[in-house]
Design goal:
- By secondary structure, this protein is mainly alpha-helical.
- It has a domain of about 60 residues.
- It contains 4 helices and no strands.
- Helix 3 runs antiparallel to helix 4.
- The protein is globular and about 35 Å long.
Length: about 90
């Protein structure tokens, strides 16, 4: 994720849930990275972030966000399950 995200996590107190806006911003960042360089691991990270959003205690207050996350979850899981069948050429484009 990056230093600022892990540093932020350490500042939170107790069992306080991560703010939804920060979680959504992390999701957008992961989706952007996937658009630049698709890979199974990143797709699974997006699916995991969608699942975290769906499990957030305040998600019920945002029904459209809940609906969008739920609609996209299985698609991202499927993207993460594909195995690259192309033989490596000795260098990576990432």
């Amino acid at each position: 994720m990056g230093f600022w995200m892990s540093a932020y996590s350490e500042v939170r107190q107790g069992d306080e849930p991560e703010p939804l806006d920060r979680m959504q911003a992390e999701l957008f960042a992961m989706m952007y990275r996937y658009a630049q360089a698709p890979c199974c691991g990143l797709a699974l990270a997006v699916a995991g972030q969608l699942q975290k959003l769906l499990n957030h205690p305040l998600i019920a207050l945002f029904p459209e966000l809940h609906r969008q996350c739920a609609m996209q979850l299985n698609g991202w899981r499927a993207r993460g399950s594909f195995v690259d069948n192309v033989k490596p050429r000795g260098r990576s484009l990432h």
